[in-house]
UniProtKB/TrEMBL annotation:
<keyword id="KW-0238">DNA-binding</keyword>
<dbReference type="InterPro" id="IPR000792">
    <property type="entry name" value="Tscrpt_reg_LuxR_C"/>
</dbReference>
<dbReference type="InterPro" id="IPR001789">
    <property type="entry name" value="Sig_transdc_resp-reg_receiver"/>
</dbReference>
<dbReference type="Pfam" id="PF00196">
    <property type="entry name" value="GerE"/>
</dbReference>
<dbReference type="InterPro" id="IPR039420">
    <property type="entry name" value="WalR-like"/>
</dbReference>
<feature type="modified residue" description="4-aspartylphosphate">
    <location>
        <position position="54"/>
    </location>
</feature>
<keyword id="KW-0597">Phosphoprotein</keyword>
<dbReference type="Pfam" id="PF00072">
    <property type="entry name" value="Response_reg"/>
</dbReference>
<protein>
    <submittedName>
        <fullName>DNA-binding response regulator</fullName>
    </submittedName>
</protein>
<dbReference type="GO" id="GO:0003677">
    <property type="term" value="F:DNA binding"/>
</dbReference>
<dbReference type="InterPro" id="IPR011006">
    <property type="entry name" value="CheY-like_superfamily"/>
</dbReference>
<feature type="domain" description="Response regulatory">
    <location>
        <begin position="3"/>
        <end position="119"/>
    </location>
</feature>
<dbReference type="InterPro" id="IPR016032">
    <property type="entry name" value="Sig_transdc_resp-reg_C-effctor"/>
</dbReference>
<feature type="domain" description="HTH luxR-type">
    <location>
        <begin position="134"/>
        <end position="199"/>
    </location>
</feature>
Length: 201
């Protein structure tokens, strides 16, 4: 029996996922939650084989939670569900050491097969998305620039970003100027939009 934890913040979607998996004779949902912050403690108590995680969760996002699981409970394999099927998002997921990556609009039978594949030790990735990621350009921003842009994307001012990252406000402004330039953006807001659409943020 493959034991699964389901993390999805939309109640109807989570209910549908649990019901779909419940139809499979070899799969059992042992835990479910609605936020990224709940995943690790729940996995520590329920000990699932697979954590099925929505990428866009409140609290910790799905990729952060998956990376945390990989570090703390490496025996729990992770399958990310997303409605954001961009190549950049897939690259970020693979960097977070997830074991599978599936779009939410995939056919229902593909979900159960993806769970089985990940449980068997295979890496399961949507084929069209994998090809798109192969052909897509890599993110031109450094890890630090992405960190700065992520904080700017939620409305933090340069002084707040500086305090959060232990940098000077001048250094943060320089980072933001470089980011806008690298992305050929009109301004900071446009840079956030470009990075989001490319799946880099």
């Amino acid at each position: 029996m493959i034991k699964v934890l389901v993390a999805e913040d939309m109640h109807i979607v989570r209910g549908a996922l649990v019901a779909l998996l419940g139809l499979e004779a070899d799969i059992e949902v042992v835990a479910e939650c609605a936020s990224g912050d709940e995943i690790l403690p729940l996995a520590q108590s329920a000990r699932p084989d697979i954590a099925l995680i929505d990428i866009d969760l409140p609290g910790k996002d799905g990729l952060t939670a998956a990376a945390e699981l990989h570090e703390q409970l490496p025996e729990v394999r992770t399958l990310i569900l997303t409605s954001l099927g961009s190549p950049g998002t897939l690259r970020r997921a693979l960097a977070a050491k997830v074991n599978g990556f599936l779009r939410k609009d995939a056919p229902a039978d593909r979900l159960a097969n993806a769970v089985r594949g990940v449980a068997a030790g295979r890496r399961v990735v949507d084929g069209d998305l994998a090809l798109a990621a192969w052909d897509s350009e890599e993110c031109p921003l450094t890890a630090r620039e992405i960190e700065v842009l992520r904080l700017a994307s939620v409305g933090s001012e340069p002084t707040e970003i500086a305090a959060e990252l232990f940098l000077s406000a001048g250094t943060v402004r320089n980072y933001l100027t470089t980011i806008v330039s690298k992305l050929s953006a009109r301004n900071r807001v446009d840079a956030v939009r470009i990075a989001r659409e490319s799946g880099w943020l």
